Amino acid sequence: MVVVLDSTTRPRHPEKANRPDTPILRKPAWIRVRAPTSRGFAETNRTLRENRLVTVCEEAGCPNIGECWEKKHATFMIMGDTCTRACAFCNVKTGLPGPLDPGEPERVAAATEQLGLSHVVVTSVDRDDLPDGGAGHFAAVIAAIRARCKGITIEVLTPDFLRKPGAIETVVAARPDVFNHNLETVPSRYLTVRPGARYFHSLRLLQRVKEIDPAMFTKSGIMVGLGEERHEVIQVMDDLRSAGVDFLTIGQYLQPTRKHHPVVRFVTPEEFKAYETIAYAKGFLMVSSSPLTRSSHHAGEDFARLRAARDAQRSR
């Protein structure tokens, strides 16, 4: 694996993704959201600033930030705001990250308590510079939240920990309620969309979580609109089910800037619904498939439905 430390070296897509004259497709009506202006949004923002925390909501330019922050739901992005990878779809900056902040776990826990969260999602940048990829820091954050917020459920969205032996085991041992790792796209698009990663390594990570703790919920997601074919999306579903994954998310890719991979097309709501139907037929306990679906969108409500679905399955 090559660690890219200069944001100017972001991988170029053969379809001219980085050319300044590459047109950005106009968003259809179903993908538009209203600007965040509510009091709840302002209060969430204030809590995050007071605790000096980074969120993926902001760094990745999530279209659901207004809705989520209005409800005081935020997804914490730990280990800084600088990633050691340069994926062609991602708006998080690339470079050489700073050292880990030992006070961050407690600040994440404090903000979780202040926001009144009953289900919290914690993700991170890739930290290929660390011996364990940041797995120990994930575990410290989980422990700090559990110590401060009794009865809370915790969902982690981790990087792939490529070539980091023992990292998966460290995070699983901390016992998050949901272990999420996104495949992001179909295998044929990895070279241009996610060049620093390996499809089958990510798939194996999810399988390994289930081997260590069969009772732990696993979750993964992909973006569509990157040039994938329908049959490839369905093959990803089969691969994830073979790895025992419980929860699948499918959302529309949105191009952050002209330097990023272009949107090849906007997938219609009807197509998303068809993917949802197929995924449930393949045995996923929970599926979220819509243009605005993101990994942590409605995570708390979805976790409740996920747990209910497993209980119903066991009672049959």
Describe the structure.
By secondary structure, the protein is α/β, with parallel strands linked by helices. It has a single domain, classed as Aldolase class I (TIM Barrel, Alpha-Beta Barrel), CATH 3.20.20. The chain is built from eleven helices and nine strands. It has a seven-stranded parallel beta sheet with strand order 1-4-5-6-7-8-9, with helices on both faces. The chain has a two-stranded parallel ribbon with strand order 2-3. Helix 4 packs across helix 5 and helix 5 runs parallel beside helix 6. The longest helix has 17 residues. It is globular and about 45 Å long. The N terminus is likely disordered.
What order do the SSEs take from the amino end to the carboxyl end, as H and E? HHHEEEHEHEHEHHEHEHEH
The SS-based structural class is: alpha/beta
Helical segment tally?
11
Gap from first CA to last CA: 46 Å
Q: What name does CATH use for the topology? A: TIM Barrel
Main beta-sheet strand count, sense and barrel state: 7 strands, parallel
CATH homologous superfamily identity: Aldolase class I
Quote the beta fraction.
Answer: 5-15%
Second rung of CATH, namely the architecture:
Alpha-Beta Barrel
